[in-house]
Design a protein that fits this description.
It is a single chain. 10% of the residues lie in helices and 39% in strands. The chain is mostly beta strands and 281 residues long. The chain folds into 2 domains: 39-123, Immunoglobulin-like; 127-273, no CATH class. A hairpin with a 5-residue loop joins strand 15 and strand 16 (234-242). It is elongated.
């Protein structure tokens, strides 16, 4: 019996020591180790907005993420918001302006990581939906589109103003997108949305054929096309519908010259001679 009482007292003493030690630890312990910087930061641009995504941190005590922006990669970054997930939308982004973004993780003790190391920027751009233009053979004044003006224009022009960046043609029952010799176009294939094409390609542009004065590619429903304009801007269109005399498309146009790829301005050998141009095919 005495041995049992002694053993019982020993157990109580050990339990008390453990209890007081744990209480002191839980009360006094403070984590001052910051999380690691988020990785794989990416941006996706829209009309007056930039979406930012990143890979979630692996630390278990992550409380959220702070999102920062700057006008230069090496400049001072300003806090613009925070979120508990790995997705944020900058609705204050202005079309045509370049913003650099960085993300920092913070934990429940208020420790914040360094800014993400990825060099990431976004340039919001305007877009339009359900735009129609017509066959240049039937409606020459409404057959082209000028992305810089956001409007339908004649396929050619004898004024000092540039003519259409792209124009539509029904040639013997087959439909085409045409561009002048100082502009490039490329069929990016079928897409579920024109948003599926994030960047303009580096190469693969449609060449101009001998004895032709335009470059052209077939216009197909559901396909997205990238246009590299004569004045060094990129645009994209996705065909939504085609009838005998018109095409309906969604479009986006990058206001910042040379973004995302640089292009040297080229002098046209055709635009200066535009009049009643006859297109050959």
């Amino acid at each position: 019996m005495k041995n049992e009482k002694a053993l019982y007292r020993i157990i109580l003493i050990v339990a008390s020591i453990f209890l007081f030690t744990y209480c002191d630890y839980s009360t006094d312990y403070y984590d001052n180790t910051p999380p690691s910087p988020p990785e794989n930061v990416k941006t996706y641009v829209g009309d007056n907005l930039v979406e930012i995504t990143w890979a979630e941190n692996h630390e278990r005590d992550i409380a959220g993420y702070n999102i920062y922006f700057s006008f230069t990669y090496w400049g001072d970054y300003e806090l613009i918001g925070n979120t508990g997930g790995n997705y944020y939308v900058d609705y204050d982004a202005k079309n045509g302006e370049l913003y650099y973004y960085a993300v920092a993780a913070y934990d429940y003790d208020g420790n914040e990581s360094e800014l993400s190391y990825d060099e990431v920027y976004g340039v919001a751009r305007p877009e339009g939906m359900n735009q129609a233009m017509y066959d240049y053979n039937l409606f020459p004044n409404n057959s082209g589109y000028d992305f810089s003006e956001f409007k339908v224009v004649p396929y050619n022009s004898n004024s000092d103003n540039a003519s259409a960046d792209i124009f539509f043609e029904n040639y013997n029952g087959e439909f085409y997108f045409n561009v002048w010799d100082d502009t490039d176009i490329q069929d990016m294939g079928y897409t579920d949305s024109f948003l599926d094409i994030y960047y303009a390609p580096i190469d693969g542009w449609v060449p101009i054929a001998p004895d032709e004065n335009v470059k052209y590619t077939k216009a197909l429903i559901g396909h997205t096309y990238v246009i590299w304009t004569w004045d060094n801007h990129f645009a994209k269109v996705r065909v939504k519908a085609i009838t005998g005399d018109r095409v309906v498309f969604d479009w986006a146009y990058q206001l910042l010259e040379g973004e995302p790829q640089l292009k040297t301005n080229r002098n046209s050998t055709v635009r200066e001679k535009l009049s009643n141009t006859i297109i050959k095919k």
